[in-house]
């Protein structure tokens, strides 16, 4: 812990945090700011650490609810247990995937994947990890109703086919399956510990059942949760720098205060906007990195947006730069696709090049864009009823909705905002009566695997979130092909084609990508700044900047 | 004895009615817990929604759901949190100490300071001190507690570094250190109310005949204040203090979020936002119970402070 700072920045931080409460916003929706954005370092990781650190206090957006990931998991749980639990595959800070508890994972033919289990891995209780343990864990994740069971949707059978070998039989080729084994669906648990705890496993007071570089220490519900460096971590070659991490949790405004006052040493912030007041705090350094998160406007099945041309016109006229500045202080980027650059977990250069060529979703509409949009409206005919966009009164959604109304007006369309209670906003995905109230609703969307194919499947005519009824047989065929393409370069080509078709048809209007945002005490470094922290043991890399 | 029984029965009925109203209100509130229970929008298929509804009995009619809850609650089981997957009683138990400590600390502050200021103002009534106290407390009461909280955090924690920014602390001394600013923020509004009631109640006593009589016997100023004025003024003061405490037990939400304290208030807001029905139900009932306990304690305390009240009850 550092001594509390007394900088001018502190006042600014509080003023903004205060404004947050005064306007009645929820945490993570700080008030719009006119402060010009500082250029934050953007990349997969912060510079490597030079020396170890004893104890670090880390802020989470909420208290973890359970560490039984077959029940549920969210950002808070993942941030903590990425350090405690390990998976068959591992996500790296640059968001690529490498083998981990599995030495290798290979497609032996069109429907069989073989995982070779690493030798010499031990769980925290000292017992060795066997192939039977791996099989037991995978079956637990695949069980009906388990939170991760969707990762196993195409799995027909799982068998131990050798001392250190598991063979998974798939109904059809699923190129994303191996990647998914770097997520919570590939977590390997110690069956002896889980079974000894019974139903209590995962709640405060029970031990973890994992093999990672950290073990779960004391979890004081409502107060703090501690993880400690594992005493006999199986991978002696892996340097583990931080001895102990104490996690605490609070609303984003209190997280900002705790970081400003030096009471907390770091946090992966809930939203880039939370970093606005921290930009001027000397004792805190900020960094951003790729994530799959992006703000989008999802079209519903209601009304005039069924016509693709109206959606395209709105997309052409939307001022994304204005939104990024007003809602995120410039800490989010205008974005042309519905998924952040963190999805590019392979062939990143090809994806980057294809992204740059995309058209139809300008950062700020030019005169040509507006003319093209007006031409589209003329062709389609302006709808009789005004276009309705939903907001929940939160500051980001307010900015996005107002920008959409402005975009519509700039091309001669009428548009209005309907406000839905934030407690009900999530029902847009489940309740067609709620969707019946608006033509568009904004949301921050993300996927858990770093593969655009995992997102673009949402444009298939059968997808649950394809509300507007976008239907293109060629697109559907491409989705199938992409899922079957186990060769990265081939899959990237297919994903790029899906992306091009999606952006052209615009079932959702892309708005801005919200990068992963890290706030860290200035003399600490080493951790990833990308969204890898949700699955990668970031605490092991956390150390001092000076040796 | 009979009166006590009647009182307990009354409380039981109140609890059942309150629990039903809360339950029905949640049932009628917009928003569907299924969206949060499933989480990933891509998994929100009609089959999955139906399965989750059945699992949590959300497909049952209101009365059936209420009965399931009530029969569990009567057996001491308040249910399992949708969000935390832990027994609601365990979650409440882990959040309760922070909130109770915060309210207790605030109660000590506004009682001692509020009554002190009220007495001072009453003794000096009509003079500059009186006006200053009345003016200052009125001004203080007009600041919402979260504004006070933000000001306190920015100056005393972030700027000066005297107090911690977040959390409720560990153990007694650390707890005092952590809870001082939140308790001040929470007690500022209450302080004005208590000091005004104290002042008013005492002013009335000053003008009463028995005080005149005591003065005429040549009794000194301080003795009159303590033995006659304050003693007879206690009733309204204690009642007001109790009502304020009861309202604080349900009103720590905003201060808890400003100071990052995981208490009952922040738990309630979180539970409402995620449609965690069993937790919302339990927290709101806790508030009803807290209110009943505080008012009962006052009813029992008042006759002890002022024997005339007890006599009235007996003779009626």
Description:
The complex is a heterodimer of chains A (547) and B (316). Chain A is an alpha+beta fold and 547 residues long. Chain A contains 16 helices and 21 strands. Chain A has helices at 8-22, 75-81, 131-142, 177-180, 191-197, 252-260, 308-317, 320-328, 348-357, 367-380, 395-410, 422-425, 432-435, 452-456, 473-484, 488-505, and strands at 53-60, 89-91, 97-99, 102-109, 112-117, 155-162, 165-170, 214-220, 224-229, 242-249, 266-268, 284-289, 294-299, 333-334, 387-391, 415-419, 440-445, 508-513, 516-521, 524-525, 543-544. Residues 1-37 of chain A have low confidence and may be disordered. By secondary structure, chain B is mainly α. In chain B, 78% of the residues lie in helices and 0% in strands. Chain B is built from 14 helices and no strands. Chain B is globular and about 85 Å long. Chain B starts with a helix and ends with a helix. The mean pLDDT of chain B is 85. Chains A and B meet through helix 1, helix 6 and helix 12 of A and helix 2, helix 3, helix 5, helix 7 and helix 11 of B.
């Amino acid at each position: 812990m550092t001594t509390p700072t007394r900088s001018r920045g502190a006042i600014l931080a509080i003023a903004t945090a205060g404004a947050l409460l005064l306007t009645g916003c929820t945490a993570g929706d700080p008030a719009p700011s006119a402060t010009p954005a500082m250029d934050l370092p953007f990349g997969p990781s912060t510079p490597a650490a030079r020396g170890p650190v004893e104890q670090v206090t880390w802020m989470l957006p909420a208290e973890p609810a359970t560490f039984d990931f077959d029940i549920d998991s969210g950002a808070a749980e993942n941030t903590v247990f990425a350090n405690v639990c390990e998976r068959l595959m591992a996500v790296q800070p640059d968001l690529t995937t490498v083998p981990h508890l599995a030495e290798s994972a290979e497609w032996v033919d069109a429907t069989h994947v073989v995982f070779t289990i690493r030798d010499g891995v031990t769980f925290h209780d000292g017992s060795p990890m066997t192939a039977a343990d791996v099989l037991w864990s995978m079956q637990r994740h695949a069980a009906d109703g388990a939170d991760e069971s969707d990762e196993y949707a195409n799995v027909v059978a799982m068998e131990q086919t050798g001392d250190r070998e598991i063979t998974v039989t798939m109904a059809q080729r699923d190129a994303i399956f191996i990647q998914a084994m770097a997520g919570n669906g590939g977590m390997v648990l110690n069956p002896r510990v889980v079974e000894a705890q019974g139903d209590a496993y995962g709640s405060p007071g029970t031990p973890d059942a994992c093999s990672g570089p950290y073990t779960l220490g004391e979890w004081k519900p409502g107060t703090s949760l501690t993880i400690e460096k594992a005493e006999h971590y199986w991978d002696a070659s892996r340097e583990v720098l931080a001895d102990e991490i104490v996690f605490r949790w609070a609303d984003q405004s209190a997280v900002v205060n705790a970081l400003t006052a030096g009471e907390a040493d770091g946090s992966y912030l809930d939203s880039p906007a939370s970093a606005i007041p921290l930009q001027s705090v000397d004792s805190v350094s900020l960094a951003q990195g790729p994530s799959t998160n992006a703000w989008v406007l999802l079209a519903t099945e209601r009304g005039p947006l069924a016509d693709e041309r109206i959606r395209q016109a709105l997309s052409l006229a939307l001022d994304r730069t204005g939104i990024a500045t007003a809602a995120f202080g410039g800490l989010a980027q205008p974005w042309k696709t519905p998924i952040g650059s963190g999805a590019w977990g392979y062939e990143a250069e090809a994806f980057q090049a294809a992204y740059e060529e995309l058209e139809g979703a300008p950062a700020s509409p030019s005169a040509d864009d507006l003319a093209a949009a007006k031409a589209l409206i003329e062709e389609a005919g302006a709808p009789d009823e005004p276009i309705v966009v939903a907001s929940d009164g939160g500051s980001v959604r307010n900015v996005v909705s107002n920008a959409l109304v402005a975009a519509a007006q700039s091309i001669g369309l009428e548009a209005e905002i309907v406000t839905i209670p934030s407690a009900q906003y999530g029902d847009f995905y489940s309740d067609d009566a709620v969707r019946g109230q608006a033509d568009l609703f904004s949301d921050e969307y993300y996927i858990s695997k770093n593969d655009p194919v995992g997102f673009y499947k949402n444009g298939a005519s059968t997808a649950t979130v394809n509300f507007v009824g976008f239907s293109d047989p060629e697109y559907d065929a491409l989705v199938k092909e992409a899922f079957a393409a186990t060769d990265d370069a081939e899959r990237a080509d297919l994903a790029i084609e899906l992306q091009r078709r999606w952006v052209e048809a615009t079932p959702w209007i892309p708005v801005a990508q919200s990068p992963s945002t890290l706030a860290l005490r200035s003399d600490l470094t080493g951790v990833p700044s990308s969204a890898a922290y949700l699955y990668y043991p970031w605490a092991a890399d956390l150390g001092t900047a000076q040796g | 004895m009979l009166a006590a029984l009647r009182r307990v029965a009354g409380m039981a009925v109140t609890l059942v009615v309150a629990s039903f109203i809360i339950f029905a209100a949640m049932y009628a509130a917009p928003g569907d817990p299924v969206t949060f229970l499933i989480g990933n929008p891509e998994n929100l298929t009609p089959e999955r929604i139906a399965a989750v509804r059945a699992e949590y009995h959300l497909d049952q009619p209101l009365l059936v759901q209420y009965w399931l809850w009530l029969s569990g609650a009567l057996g001491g089981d308040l249910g399992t949190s949708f969000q935390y997957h832990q027994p609601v009683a365990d979650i409440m138990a882990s959040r309760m100490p922070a909130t109770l400590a915060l309210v207790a600390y605030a109660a000590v502050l506004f009682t001692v300071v509020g009554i002190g200021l009220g007495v001072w103002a009453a003794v000096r009534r009509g003079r500059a001190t009186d006006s200053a106290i009345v003016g200052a407390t009125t001004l203080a009461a007009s600041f919402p507690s979260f504004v006070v909280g933000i000001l306190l955090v920015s100056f005393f924690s972030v700027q000066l570094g005297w107090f911690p920014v977040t959390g409720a602390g560990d153990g007694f001394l650390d707890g005092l250190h952590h809870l001082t600013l939140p308790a001040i923020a929470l007690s500022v509004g209450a302080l004005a109310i208590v000091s005004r009631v104290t002042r008013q109640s005492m002013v009335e006593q000053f003008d009463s005949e028995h005080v005149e009589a005591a003065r005429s016997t040549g009794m000194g100023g301080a003795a009159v204040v303590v033995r006659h004025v304050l003693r007879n003024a206690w009733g309204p003061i204690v009642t007001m203090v109790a009502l304020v405490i009861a309202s604080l037990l349900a009103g720590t939400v905003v201060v808890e979020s400003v100071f990052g304290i995981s208490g009952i208030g922040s738990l309630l807001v979180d539970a409402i936002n995620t449609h965690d029905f069993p937790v919302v139900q339990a927290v709101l009932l806790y508030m009803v119970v807290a209110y009943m306990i505080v008012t009962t304690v006052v009813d029992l305390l008042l006759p002890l402070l002022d024997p005339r009240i007890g006599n009235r009850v007996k003779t009626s």
